[in-house]
């Protein structure tokens, strides 16, 4: 899993950043992106120190994902960005995903001022293009191929799930704690019965009003 990052290390960048998102497919809630960074010269030492199994967040059980999330927060630098359902409806989910990634990069740079467009390389999950001056590469199935992208996928997933748990208290009839906004049978049934709420994506056909 470290081969792609090793190639970046050989290009003499100071920082390597992995980016992934969570929440492109659901009918409700935000899309959340995470940018996870490490100093290039510390990459191998840091990765070898991990006790958690780091892989695509979808392949981890909830306890393992939370355990990995906590360790990532201790050992790596993190930036977060999100776009609400309202923004998704205005600019579409692809553009909202890109915007959330750019916001995650900005968040990371604010927390780690020494990161700059000239000294960092970004690895992004998927064949996606960003309007950024950072050098980057989009990698199909990057969350299974790159350590840092896998870390970003874990962070984004855990953060988004926490957001949906909070929404479950606001909208207790909708079951957001169970389906996290995805179009499950139960979710569709509640929409049919009660209609949509503010966090539903009205531009997605099941929620169109």
Topology:
Layout: H1 3-9, E1 15-22, E2 31-39, H2 43-48, H3 62-75, E3 77-83, H4 85-91, H5 93-111, E4 120-125, E5 135-139, H6 142-145, H7 147-170, H8 176-179, H9 185-194
Parallel strand pairs: 1-4, 4-5
Antiparallel strand pairs: 1-2, 2-3
Overview of the molecule:
The protein is an alpha/beta fold. It has a single domain (3-207), classed as Ribonuclease H-like superfamily/Ribonuclease H (Nucleotidyltransferase, domain 5, 2-Layer Sandwich), CATH 3.30.420.10. It contains nine helices and five strands, in the order αββααβααββαααα. A five-stranded mixed beta sheet has the order 3-2-1-4-5. Strand 1 and strand 2 form a beta hairpin. Helix 3 (62-75) crosses helix 7 (147-170) and helix 4 crosses helix 5 (93-111). The longest helix is centred in the last third of the chain and has 24 residues, at 147-170.
List the keywords.
globular, five-stranded mixed beta sheet, Nucleotidyltransferase, domain 5, single chain, 209 residues, 17% strand, 5 strands, alpha/beta
Encode the helix/strand succession as letters: HEEHHEHHEEHHHH
Which residue ranges are poorly predicted, with pLDDT under 50 across at least 5 consecutive positions? none
Please count the beta strands (DSSP E, at least 2 residues each): 5
Content of β-strand: 15-25%
Quick one: CATH superfamily?
Answer: Ribonuclease H-like superfamily/Ribonuclease H
CATH fold label: Nucleotidyltransferase, domain 5
Structural class by SSE content: alpha/beta
Number of helices: 9
Query: How many domains, in number, for the residues?
Result: 1
CA radius of gyration: 17 Å
Major sheet characteristics: 5 strands, mixed
Helix proportion? 40-55%
Question: Which outline best applies?
Answer: globular
N- to C-terminal distance: 45 Å
CATH architecture: 2-Layer Sandwich
Mean pLDDT: 94
Q: Strand sequence of the main sheet, in spatial order?
A: 3-2-1-4-5
CATH class: Alpha Beta
